[in-house]
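User: I'm writing a short methods note and want a consistent example. For dolichyl-diphosphooligosaccharide--protein glycotransferase, I'll paste the sequence; you return only the structure tokens, no commentary, since I'll be parsing the reply automatically.
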Amino acid sequence: MAATATTKDATGTVLSAIILILVAVLAFSIRLFSVIKYESVIHEFDPYFNYRVTQYLSKNGVYDFWNWFDDRTWYPLGRVIGGTVYPGLTLTAGTMWWIFNSLNIPLSVETVCVFTAPIFSANAAWATYLLTKEVKGIGAGLTAAALIAMVPSYISRSVAGSYDNEAVAIFALVFTFYLYIKTLNTGSLFYATLNALAYFYMVCSWGGYTFIINLIPMHVLLCIITGRYSSRLYIAYAPLVVLGTLLAALVPVVGFNAVMTSEHFGSFLVFIILNVVALGHYIKRTVSAKMFKVAITLVISFGMVVSVALAAILVASVAASPTKGWSGRSLSLLDPTYASKYIPIIASVSEHQPPTWPSYFMDINVLAFLVPAGIIACFLPLSDASSFLVLYIVTSVYFSGVMVRLMLVLAPAACILSGIALSEAFAVLTRSIKFKQDKSEVLMDESNNGSKTSQPEKDKEIVRERPSKKSRRMEKENVEKVLEKKEVKQWSLLLPVEASAVGILLLIVLGSFYVVHCVWAAAEAYSAPSIVLSSHTPEGVHVFDDFREAYAWLSHNTDIDDKVASWWDYGYQTTAMANRTVIVDNNTWNNTHIATVGTAMSSPERQAWEIFQSLDVKYVFVVFGGLVGYPSDDINKFLWMVRIGGGVFPHIKEPDYLRDGQYRIDSQATPTMLNSLMYKLSYYRFTEADGKGFDRVRRTEIGKKYFKLTHFEEVFTTHHWMVRIYKLKPPKNRLRGKNKKRSKSSSKGGKSSSWKKQEKRNPWH
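Assistant:
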């Protein structure tokens, strides 16, 4: 029997390893549609900055990376890269590039960056397996790993080319949770140390590390309140707070924020409470019951005094801050209306908007229906580990409902709970079939054994003295009682064989539907890079490569020191692809600087020219989708420019750009809107493109069709009119034109009254 059990365990281990390898291959390969359908290219906006930083790291080394001052961003302020970036992604990709090249595998930095996210998606699947296995066993772990390998919410941030912080952060998040649960189950100081190191890697990788340092204290506090304190809980939490906080403070972008911001205060408060409870349990074991009451009173009193003193110190340290030590994004999560009221730059980002109900079905699909079953399974029975999963899913559901970007945090929790639900469901459904089969085999064996009994043996049995009828009845009753006690637990969870077969079939159909949806989402919804667009027409697929066309033009037709202005969305791409200095970019650290650009775009042409001149800007470009129907253009973002600009410069008022509360660009648009720089740069010569000035995004004819530019000149428009580049006219050229008019006026008998007015208004005269 022992040999059979050992063989069975070995077979299970090998089978689990094979399944995990296949899951890793699946997680990697399903994210390659973007490379297969398009090409190996960096996606979106932020990844271009990360790619540029990784290039600098691989070329100049770590020391120069920490001390790099980038003068090509946020002109004229610049940016200290080493102190303002989460270095985890960059250091990870840079290390991978160095390893490959050390092994004589000549991969470019761009190739490593493109495939970093698919590689770490496989790691995230393995981490999910470990976490779920630690809570509910191997079957649930394998199921959860397979689910997270395909879940669309995670694919959206980890396709090949999506070189953003979340590419490695989700793995770090899940792995940190696994090591916490592992420490909680084993009480091992070794795993507690690894947990602090994993938390350090998470801090290096993503600002979402604050979710960890708040969720784990919440779980520790829950265990204390429900009377589940143990030495294992102390070992799991104390090293994380002490060692993890010290390591987090070493990351330049975090620094003293690890101990000075309100996002971290809760972990310190729970740490004090945990030490008070631990001291109380120690005293209870060492003193008598009478002395315990006196001692515990002193301990609680001392703990309250320390807590109040610490709270007073922390409150005093953040009292001067208008946000009381909270970051703008944290306040937006706690109060969903905060950003729209006070920080429009945060509210303007599409991924910071709350999701719609269809978003949940798109991003987690059928998992939304399996999660409640997984929560119920966590209560059968409830343990410290399973209670953590329940707390994880509840908090992640809330945060995902506030900000669509945090659907990414919900995805691992949904996969884990759904994996548990599917595993438990398959266990119940297959148990009845297995039990029925085993029972049939036992009856068959008894029948065969009875028929194989030899005649002499039968004669001996007849000769033997038979027990009395009463003793036979008592023996039968005893056996039935034993069998009933042994099998009552199994029978309570058994279903009819037919119902079990139908249930298994339905689960397979449900899983097939999930797989089809995930493959479709990976191939169609999330594989297209924002830098290269495509549309399906009856003639076939039409590709729009206007962005790279515009950046190539800037790179080849402008001076290396020229400054380029645009809305902040395109700053990272302009710096990385055109290698030109930008005024603002996607870091959005200086709201006043962004408001200045927003004010320029919202102002009339001359005032905008003066603002850009003061910033030493030579070229301005806008993104326009009115000709081809591209909805994410600057006209659709224009009201956010107005709001952000108006938040700093009060003369910019949003109602001036609205007609009866409606945003319009047709003949009913307000004069302020029609005369704004954004309107003019977008619709200049638009009637020459389609003949009548019909905007396909807004589905209306524009209000002001024929106008000329006096302070800007068009220098390049891409093939599909998606990017339009303008050059600021220098002051001397404009004055030369005025001088010609003056010479004509003087030849007729002196200066005209109109020229005198222009001369007074001209600051450059």
